[in-house]
Amino acid sequence: MKPTRRSFLRGAAAASVGAAAGGAARASSDPAFAEIQPWMQELGDPVDAAPYGMPSEFEAHVQRKTVYWLTADPISSINFTPLHELDGIITPNGLCFERHHSGAAHVDPALHRLMINGLVDRELVFTMEDLMRFPRENHVYFLECAANSGMEWRGSQLNGCQFTHGMIHNVMYTGIPLRLLLAEAGIQTAGKWLLAEGADAAGMTRSIPMEKALDDCLVAFKMNGEALRVEQGYPLRLVVPGWEGNMWVKWLRRLEVGDEPWHHREETSKYTDLLADGKARRFTWEMDAKSVITNPSPQAPLTHGAGPTVLSGLAWSGRGTIPRVDVTLDGGKNWHQARMSGPSLSKSMHRFYFEFDWNGQPLLLQSRAHDSTGYVQPTKNALRELRGTNSIYHNNGIQTWHVKKTGEAENVEVS
């Protein structure tokens, strides 16, 4: 049974009293407290030691990481956000995962242009200076690669939520509503689709329905208040809220209005979902509701032993908000409602917690997200029954971590 907040705090207070009783005796013998440390005797860094602020050197392990055998070449590859090292819902810019098809392009903003052409009344070319004169908006959205958790379709593969779920980030984007730029060009009646094209060597292109383009898409130039990072599409990228990351074209240089989808490589041979019968689902743009427990997890084991324990995780949906997340400690036999904390924003990450007294016995941890449309995150087996195991995209199945008596955790599946 889930402990009440009062009982949890009572237990925590009792533990604190016990710790305090022995703490006074230990304080004088604990060198970390009793001895004068170097930083207590020396002057610290001056204000300009790091003109662009950096994390503490003691946080140097908090990094994006890649799995070298996943791709043949690092130029067209992936690295992963360290979800287990973060809290809240905002991903720091330097930790947002990378996915490139021809490496991260270094684009001179003074030479960058955005063209709008095709079925429009006026073909236009904007400089970055031109774009800065349009009204802008700020929105917090998640960006998830369609292949996030893709290695898990056929069973447990990667041991750590950074690697199973880390092809995602959540930031505040500042940008121009796409509909304003399209209105400036004037969409012709036959214009039902939009082709977005990037300026990188891959010439990335994706077809986007005009309804979506006119709804909530942004042409973004900042994230978390500062200019886009090079690896995130500096100086300009498309933001397509709630839809798969491949459509968020980076280094955006051209928008073409057409009367039908283009069926280019990234929406035919790639980014379609191959089913068991050999047919492929296409245009599976929306990212379904999903969640993961970030702590404890394989890269974040329990080290404190039995007693008061805080479980933490993230949930998100491409269709709206996450009003509820359930967690289980026993592989789905008993479910408990988690505590949601922080802002609840549409198409954004949501943070959840569950506090419990760990008895030191093995745990089978899972989380299950409910989104604002009523959709409930499915099990992996339920997904496989519908779609087989041929795809590497759109895997939003429930993740299981097995926590051992030692507090170590591993990626497993339960049936």
TrEMBL record:
The enzyme's E.C. designation: 1.8.2.1
GO biological process, any: sulfur compound metabolic process
Residue ranges occupied by any Oxidoreductase molybdopterin-binding domain in the UniProt entry: 104-262
Domain of life: Bacteria
Keyword hit for Oxidoreductase: yes
InterPro entries noted in UniProt: Ig_E-set (IPR014756), MoCF_OxRdtse_dimer (IPR005066), Mopterin_OxRdtase_euk (IPR008335), OxRdtase_Mopterin-bd_dom (IPR000572), OxRdtase_Mopterin-bd_sf (IPR036374), Sulfite_DH_SoxC (IPR030835), TAT_signal (IPR006311)
Ranges for domain Moybdenum cofactor oxidoreductase dimerisation: 282-399
Protein name as annotated: Sulfite dehydrogenase
Species for this entry: Meridianimarinicoccus aquatilis
